[in-house]
Amino acid sequence: MGREQRFHFDQALLPGGWAVDVALLVRDGLVAAVDAGAAAPRTDAERHAIALPGLPNLHSHAFQRGMAGLAEVNLGGDDSFWSWRETMYRFVARLTPDHLHAIAAMAYAEMLETGFTRVGEFHYLHRDIGGAAFDDPAAMSLAIVEAAAETGIALTHLPVFYAHSGFGGAAAGEGQRRFLHDVDGYAALLDRLRQPIEALPDAVLGVAPHSLRAVTPEELAAVAALVGGPVHIHVAEQVKEVEDCLAWSGARPVEWLLDHAAVDARWCLVHATHMTDGEARRAAASGAVAGLCPITEANLGDGIFPAEVFLAAGGAYGVGSDSNILIDASEELRLLEYGQRLAHRRRNRLAPPGASVGDTLYRSALAGGARALGAPAALAVGNPADFVTLDADHPSLAERREGLLADGWLFAAGRQAVDGVWRRGHRLVTAGRHVDRARIAARYRRILGELLA
Ligand code: NGQ
Ligand code: ZN
């Protein structure tokens, strides 16, 4: 007989919608039964007022947590995504596997604290400081795997294939020397990672051709064929990228991708900011998930996603914390909606008539995030017991029921509403703090002292 746990929630978000008096039975970390309308809570059940499935964070570069707030000084020129990227390349130049482990653990603890229970780690830092292969070519990926194991967050690991500095196979630059592979070396990395990923509970392995700038068409096809799982790619984030793609191919990036790759529900199109209406409709119809990262897209000056056309065509989306400049599940969803309000000078954009925006955002990002990360995100039998409880005493949640609970969390309370977070039935966050935060934060500060000295 395995480990059994019982929970009772006054209100919980189940696959069919909000339910009251929900009894949850967890066996060995997996949901064994979930019953709505249960009678009085059993005396052996742990009781919480409000529970939701944990949110997938579909796009993270964990190491960038270490430079959060260090690229916000006006350099006097025309600061842009591209000048930020130079700052990021300088930061990356000194990172060791130990540094990466410490920074990623900090980021993952913070993700859990705000309600993310799975991270899609789009990981491209593979080679050592000088650009040579590590003795173990998976050393940096294993630092990510260890950080996930240590913090308890579920991992979809997306090792990145990166080979070029621009469209048409341009040679990689000096700042990119730590990212590079050929297809054979990349396939060997995936092989090396299968066992460690297998050993990490609920972990998934996918592939990530970095962007159309960093791979040739032949490499893109070869890389996408290496796994049956998720395929993630950055696309159409910056206007310059659209212009360069047009100059190279005569087509825009999303258009080119849909014309030349077998884009389907395995794919996550990260950002997809700059799309024509036609591209947005085709992208939606492909079944690919749009990987939206509103905080980072605002921070880097990317632009605003064409949500209206994409959603009208049935498009799926999820959210990611990307650069980790600020890690907060509620704020990603809030900013996603607020970007649309600011652009269109209207309110309540991302929900159909009659529906709560917060609830629609949360449920959409659960479904899209689950698809993009190749793992379920719902309180349903057979799934890992990964859930978030909200603090029912928070003023912004007073007297809220059903869909309005998500509105209270996402639009009013923010991260302060998160009370507990569980993964496989283990409580990882209490009163909004990761159980191991003090130790992880102390190590993080020491590592930053070394790195920024
Ligand atoms: C990245 N980040 O890979 O970290 C990128 C910047 C690039 C975002 N696109 C580098 N947000 O795209 O070339
Ligand atoms: Zn990214």
Q: What's the short story on this structure?
A:
The chain has 453 residues and is an alpha/beta fold.
How are the elements arranged and paired?
Blueprint: E1 4-14, E2 17-27, E3 30-35, E4 46-53, E5 55-60, H1 81-92, H2 97-114, E6 116-123, H3 139-151, E7 154-161, E8 164-166, E9 170-171, H4 183-199, E10 204-205, E11 208-209, H5 217-224, E12 231-235, H6 239-249, H7 253-260, E13 267-271, H8 277-286, E14 289-292, H9 294-299, H10 307-312, E15 316-319, H11 329-344, H12 357-373, E16 387-390, H13 403-413, E17 418-423, E18 426-430, E19 433-434, H14 437-452
Parallel strand pairs: 1-4, 5-6, 6-7, 7-10, 7-11, 12-13, 13-14, 14-15
Antiparallel strand pairs: 1-2, 2-3, 4-16, 8-9, 16-17, 17-18, 18-19
Helix pairs in contact: 2-3, 2-14, 12-13
N-carbamimidoyl-L-glutamic acid is lined by residues 61, 85, 211, 234, 237, 296, 300, 322-323.
Mean model confidence by pLDDT: 97
Relevant CATH superfamily of the largest domain: Metal-dependent hydrolases
Please compute the radius of gyration using only Cα atoms: 21 Å
Which spans have pLDDT < 50 for at least 5 consecutive residues? none
Query: Bound small molecules, which ones?
Result: N-carbamimidoyl-L-glutamic acid, zinc ion
What would CATH call the architecture of the largest domain? Answer: Alpha-Beta Barrel
Widest β-sheet, arrangement of strands: 3-2-1-4-16-17-18-19
Largest sheet: 8 strands, mixed
Structural class: alpha/beta
CATH topology-level fold name of the largest domain: TIM Barrel
Number of strands: 19
Count of alpha/pi helices: 14
